[in-house]
Amino acid sequence: MQLIIPKDYDPKLPVKTTQEAIRYIRETFQDEFGKEMNLSRLSAPMFVKHSTGLNDNLNGVETPVSFTMKELPGETIEVVHSLAKWKRWALKRFNFDMHTGLYTNMNAIRKDEDLDNIHSIYVDQWDWEKVIKKEERNEETLKATVRQIFKVIKHMEHEVWYKYPEAVYHLPDEIHFVTTQELEDRYPDLDRQAREDAICKELGCVFLMKIGGPMKNGKKHDGRAPDYDDWDLNGDILFWYEPLQRSLEVSSMGIRVSPESMAKQLKMAGAEDRLSLPYHKTLMNEELPYTIGGGIGQSRLCMLLLGKAHVGEVQASIWPDEMIEKCEAAGIHIL
After folding, report:
1. CA-CA distances (angstroms) from residue 96 to 42, 259, 283?
2. At residue 169, does pLDDT exceed 80?
3. What pLDDT score does 58 carry?
């Protein structure tokens, strides 16, 4: 258990008012985000069949919560880790037009998560996906989309400031673009987390690009599943977060794999056996649209905009008793 207790922490808003602010942020952000990105709201599953290959494998070591059901003997059902692959399949199924897309509430259980101020076993985010042209699979498209998302987040800062001026956490005015290799070159003696902290403290907000593949030193900056993001066209939106003196990831996103890049990444990951799964066969047969998509953490965004010290202040989950007691003693009220 890793826990940061900010010195002289002031939650600024009582629990009931915090709950009102959470509702306001979630409802306002998703409406503005959908309009800005030309996305329609769609319902999404909480669980999928293991046999479809639709679940997110994350770093390849996390095991999903799974169960069986009476009406499907022999079939394993898994609680989603994310909806990265399901969304692309849904865009095809529901015949979305070019440059339109979907967003949805995604609720996941990641039981193997290491708990701290910003990590919970309960993950709640807006998952989104949008149809693009094949020729738009490039950095220009990726960066333009990142700037759109940053614009909506900045606008939400102003909205929250108007309603809760005493609580809003002020954000930088610009987002910067840095690759994982550039970060490694810049801070060769630091580990992954320390590099992210250092660049965010220096620049305020960063889109860290090209996550998943090996760098020049042969190591990965961080893991990514090989069958949804193109490792050359993805990244994370990171903010410097003063209350915890560290970086805070709010979004992971990217242009999705083509048949060629998925085959290459599956080979690099030693996961070519996935090519036999229904989803992967459909993609390799070029039956799915080209897309860009990602997830934006709902609790993470609320935490950021309200200056909270612990994600448990803006979501209800399960925490070790020791963590709850230490937080309560410091004025951090875990829901």
Report:
1. 12, 20, 17
2. yes
3. 66
From 125, 258, 261, 315, the catalytic residue: 125
Q: What CA–CA distances, in Å, run from 109 to 6, 47, 83, 123, 309? A: 27, 10, 12, 6, 22
Q: Is 273 a catalytic residue?
A: no
Cα–Cα nearest to 119, from 62, 179, 50, 77: 62
310-335 pLDDT, tens digit each: 999 999 999 999 999 999 999 999 98
Contact 128, 39 (CB under 8 A): yes
What is d(CA 145, CA 135) in angstroms, rounded to the nearest whole number?
A: 15
- Give the mean pLDDT of 182-198: 95
Q: Which residues pair with 176 in a beta bridge?
A: 206
Residue of 252, 261, 265, 298 marked active site: 252
pTM: predicted TM-score of the whole model, two decimal places? 0.93
pLDDT by residue (tens digit) across 55-75? 776 666 678 888 999 999 989
Between the alpha carbon of residue 20 and those of residues 14, 27, 160, 250, 305, the distances in Å are 10, 11, 11, 21, 13
- Asked about 252 being catalytic, the answer comes back as yes
- Mean pLDDT (the chain, rounded): 93
Domain boundaries, given as residue ranges, for the chain: 15-329
Structural contact between residues 18 and 164, judged by C-beta atoms closer than 8 angstroms: no
What CATH superfamily is the domain 15-329?
A: Bira Bifunctional Protein; Domain 2 (3.30.930.10)
Cα 58 from chain centre: 11
Catalytic residue list contains 265: no
* Selection from 86, 64, 107, 161 nearest residue 299 by Cα: 107
Q: Is 236 noted as a catalytic residue in this protein?
A: yes
